[in-house]
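hiii, so i know i said id send this last week but things got crazy w the move. better late than never?? heres the sequnce for the chain we talked about at the cafe, plus the structure i predicted for it. fair warning i was half asleep when i ran it
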Amino acid sequence: MGTEVVVEGLTKSFGKQNVWQDVTLTLPAGEVSVMLGPSGTGKTVFLKSLIGLLKPERGRVLIDGVDMVNSPERDIYETRKLFGLMFQDGALFGSMSLFDNIAFPLREHTRKKETEIRRVVMERMEMVGLLGAEGKLPGEISGGMRKRAGLARALVLDPQIILCDEPDSGLDPVRTAYLSQLLIDLNAQIDATMLIVTHNLDIAATVPDNMGMLFRRNLVTFGPREVLLTSDEPVVAQFLGGRREGPIGMSEEKDAATLAREQRTSTSYAPRVLAPQLEPSPGLPPRAAVLRRRERVLAMLPHLPEPARDAILRSYAPAGTAGGAVS
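okay and structure toks below
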């Protein structure tokens, strides 16, 4: 099972520019979480802070008792081995074949023999649908294949926590749909804790167990997917609806006068209908996270907003009923 990640009061600045402040959340073990936010809200900086590549000024990131912000460097280095990181562009070496790219972490960080390395690499390539392409160079394949190669490389050290930085960037809607299914299938197979940073609404609507959003240097919300997907918070509603009306502007947040003018002239929008969460492909095991999440979320029900509570009860209602009681 994946490892829980506890973030407490995390604050990060570059010089005088505050990126985000007092971010507090927990990534539940083995579940898939998504962090949304407009461009420039520090989502990638957040990922790098979790893994200890950037040092926030305040706060803690606790993983198996190690604080990735304040612990000794040797402890951070060891704990970093629990992570697999998928970068936006795949971050592949252009002069290496896909096989050698994916084998690189094994050759760099383990003493495995080449026969064992080959077995692991081919297994991971099969997981992401790249068997037969191991001899190709990154420049000879599509963007979607490069993404999958980057994901295979993130998996070779058997990570307990997988961080995906905008895995959909540069992909068309069809490839994004395939990638969304692949992420769910991987979670079913390895039960790792996953955090996906994205601004893609299709991934956000169908992949995660939990969702959060960064805006105006703050964490707007983080919790079960139903909380964010039913939220009437203006910035959340604007972002999920892909609308111009709301706090998010083209280059920065809008001023109060602009927002007030929009509210006077705005049209009402129909409530969002929640898309069902993706399930593993036929032939794969059910996701172990689903039962753990059900127990956790049902215990939270009294403290959740009513629209989220109703959506959760409907999702857990037996097939053919209108919702309500959950056994």
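btw The chain is about 40% helix and 20% strand. thought thatd interest u
miss u guys!!
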